[in-house]
């Protein structure tokens, strides 16, 4: 008896891919779609920049800090069971978000959404991997479709969000998850088979899990608070102190536990360390930029939500095209070239963005902005290829999970820092944030050039 369904008809293949992809779609959609609603949410719930930062970051932080635990839980009790539970939790939290009448209810529900996303996303890929374990060609195509579905959702989020907010109100961007979630749960029971449970169940790293949550929330909260209270205020100093202590304890626990959620030995090798640094820099600057520009277009340029969504359309289209080209370039030349060149293009784009003024037109802003998706779109697929080519196959899941955790954490920190920079004034804050981003991305390009080798690619 086998759990594989490779011999099933083509319709079942499509249904299996669709069922698992829906999990990735809702996760990616909620990463990007909420930015277009921030201006309306702020007006409806009387929220300032700090509150809006938490609307974005509560989701991202919960997702980042629980992502590795979600995969481990799926290994222990079954990926389908965790996938369905995560989707149900995500859907219920989405309903609460849509009905929220106060800032803290919305922020708390967003955190629960992030927890649901952390449960369902790694398990969706585990289910897909299991379904076609005996057919590598079909599995590769299925994973490609799964990845493409998430990319389309991420790219379509701002455009879809703009039209939904403008036509149906801000609550609609959360309520749309309900029919998607219901369909995903039904399809999971119809078309997905449970993964076999491991005979040996490693202990869950509860201490590490708790400490990483405390570290990330304290650090991000301190950065958000700087916008209104300043760096010398007690909440900021206290938050940074808690983050420093919790972070130090986390490193100590992870170095001593037998089954760490965040294996530090990965960072003893230069490629995982370099790719994690690149991932941190990319997400920090990119998420911060999208957050900042969403508010800039609506508050300073007085664009409608629909116009703001369309303003982001060339940006998102360029990411998609660049990602496709990056795969071919990395396959031919190895990951080092597209990583280093892409990051340098991104750094140049941030440098050009730092020169904007209050009277800069949209078209003048756009040609500068397009440097970012072109460069980063080249770098990110090569970054993932470099990482997976540098670790043993048995460690690939853990390595990719660590990279995704670092990247999502960077995105949350980026929203916190960029939002706080707006306290200096919109244009001045944008100039400072983009200049700092140019330096950070240029430094990551240097690290990619020095520590990534094409031999690492060929050795995998």
Automatic annotation (TrEMBL):
<dbReference type="Pfam" id="PF07690">
    <property type="entry name" value="MFS_1"/>
</dbReference>
<keyword id="KW-0813">Transport</keyword>
<keyword id="KW-0812">Transmembrane</keyword>
<keyword id="KW-1133">Transmembrane helix</keyword>
<dbReference type="GO" id="GO:0016020">
    <property type="term" value="C:membrane"/>
</dbReference>
<dbReference type="GO" id="GO:0022857">
    <property type="term" value="F:transmembrane transporter activity"/>
</dbReference>
<protein>
    <submittedName>
        <fullName>MFS transporter</fullName>
    </submittedName>
</protein>
<keyword id="KW-0472">Membrane</keyword>
<dbReference type="InterPro" id="IPR020846">
    <property type="entry name" value="MFS_dom"/>
</dbReference>
<dbReference type="InterPro" id="IPR011701">
    <property type="entry name" value="MFS"/>
</dbReference>
<dbReference type="InterPro" id="IPR036259">
    <property type="entry name" value="MFS_trans_sf"/>
</dbReference>
């Amino acid at each position: 008896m086998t759990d594989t369904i490779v011999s099933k008809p083509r319709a079942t293949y499509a249904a299996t891919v669709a069922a698992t992809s829906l999990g990735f779609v809702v996760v990616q959609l909620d990463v990007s779609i909420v930015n277009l609603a921030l201006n309306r949410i702020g007006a409806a719930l009387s929220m300032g920049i700090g509150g809006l930062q938490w609307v974005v970051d509560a989701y991202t932080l919960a997702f980042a800090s629980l992502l590795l635990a979600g995969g481990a839980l799926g290994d222990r009790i079954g990926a389908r069971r965790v996938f369905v539970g995560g989707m149900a939790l995500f859907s219920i939290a989405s309903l609460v978000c849509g009905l929220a009448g106060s800032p803290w209810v919305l922020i708390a529900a967003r955190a629960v959404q992030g927890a649901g996303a952390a449960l369902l996303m790694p398990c969706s890929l585990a289910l897909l991997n299991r379904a076609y374990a005996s057919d590598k060609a079909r599995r590769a195509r299925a994973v490609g479709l799964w990845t493409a579905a998430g990319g389309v959702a991420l790219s379509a989020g701002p455009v879809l969000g703009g039209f939904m907010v403008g036509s149906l109100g801000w609550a609609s961007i959360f309520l749309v998850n309900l029919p998607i979630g219901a369909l995903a749960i039904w399809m999971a029971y119809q078309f997905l088979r449970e993964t076999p449970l491991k005979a040996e169940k490693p202990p869950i790293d509860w201490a590490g899990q708790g400490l990483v949550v405390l570290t990330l929330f304290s650090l991000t909260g301190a950065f958000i608070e700087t916008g209104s209270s300043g760096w010398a205020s007690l909440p900021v100093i206290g938050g940074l102190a808690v983050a420093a202590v919790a972070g130090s304890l986390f490193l100590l626990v992870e170095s001593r536990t037998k089954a760490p959620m965040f294996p530090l030995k990965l960072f003893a090798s230069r490629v995982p360390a370099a790719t994690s640094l690149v991932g941190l820099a990319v997400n920090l600057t990119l998420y911060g930029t999208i957050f900042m520009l969403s508010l800039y277009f609506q508050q300073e340029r007085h664009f409608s939500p629909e116009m703001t969504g369309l303003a982001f359309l060339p940006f998102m289209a360029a990411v998609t095209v660049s990602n496709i080209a990056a795969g071919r370039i990395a396959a031919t030349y190895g990951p080092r070239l597209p990583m280093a060149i892409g990051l340098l293009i991104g750094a140049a784009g941030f440098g050009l963005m730092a020169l904007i003024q209050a009277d800069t037109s949209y078209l003048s802003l756009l040609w500068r902005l397009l440097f970012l998706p072109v460069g980063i779109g080249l770098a990110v697929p090569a970054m993932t290829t470099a990482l997976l080519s540098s670790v043993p196959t048995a460690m690939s899941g853990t390595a990719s999970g660590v990279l995704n955790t670092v990247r999502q954490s960077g995105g949350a920190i980026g929203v916190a820092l960029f939002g706080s920079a707006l306290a200096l004034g919109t244009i001045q804050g944008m100039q400072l944030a983009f200049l700092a981003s140019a330096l950070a991305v240029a430094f990551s390009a240097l690290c990619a050039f020095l520590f990534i080798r094409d031999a690492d690619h060929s050795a995998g």
